[in-house]
Amino acid sequence: MGELTIGAFARASRLSPKALRLYDELGLLTPARVDGTTGYRYYVEAQLPRARLVAWLRRVGMPLARIGEVCDLYETDPPAAGLVIGAYWARVETETAARRDLVTFLVDQLSGNPAGKGVEKMSEMRMRYAAGTDRGLVRPVNQDTAYAGSRLLAVADGFGADGARASGAAVDALVALEESVRGADVLNGLADAVDRVNRGNREGSSGDSGDFGDSRDSGTTLTAMLWTGSRLALVHVGDTRAYLLRGGEVSRITHDHTLVQSMIDAGSLTVEEATSHPRRALLLRALDGSADHARPDLRLHDVVPGDRYLLCSDGLFTVVGPDDIRRVLATAEDPADAVSELIALALAGGGPDNVACAVADAVTV
User: pTM for the complete prediction?
Assistant: First the structure.
């Protein structure tokens, strides 16, 4: 197989000679040979698939360090590399949506119109709310925590020996924001609270594992919505979920941070297959003391009068099907009735896990 000069290889790979020199220096795309006298770089055709993959990934904005990992994986396991790319792009889309919401929010705040076009209508709205938890019929203790207040809905699902403490601490940290955080500070307040909770799980585990294992493996998921007076600010880590009933239709407004969800995103697993996958409970993000795993989704959500919101742990949605969830949300007279009916359905389905849910209605005053 003949060698290609850097110019010929650049044309074939659609990378510039300057980029090829940089990727050589970084160890990302090393030439097949470098002339010892002239310093000219030479490549071979077998390097073209890796070079083209580098070019594609640069076009979608993937960082160089991550590109190296994906390319190395591609050479040994192409399907696995595809999963990594799919998971990366799903995160980019989530972060882009969050930034778009934040830009809209800041424009409204700085222009003196904090509720946007609907300021008059939104100022006349309030939340009607209820929350509840149940140990279920199998678990020895209840490690779920749920809260509903005039400005805050929150559900946390603890795990490990210290799971109950972890979930309670997560919700308590957000309850403290109900009266202290307003306006443009709300997303920063949520992010700071999540960071404090995560550091607490790293530094403050009780160490008393009792019969349930090592407390160092403890942590919690968290999904919460804080009412700003014009929108709901959402913070989400893990696989607790938030649903919206609007116009008779239910939609999920959070994205699970789980292995099976990343496989669904990448197209390697169907939703139906995910329900029976042996690692369906494996979390990719949680408040477990690890900085790598605790990155929350943060966004602002527009509210319409008549909206009904449900936050719940996996003890509900893995047992109660989407049709039943929609039926209860659409027909329950008030949030307290919805909470009671949903928990009853989870128990009727065997109650294999703790169950927690919080429901709020956006109503006009």
Answer: 0.69
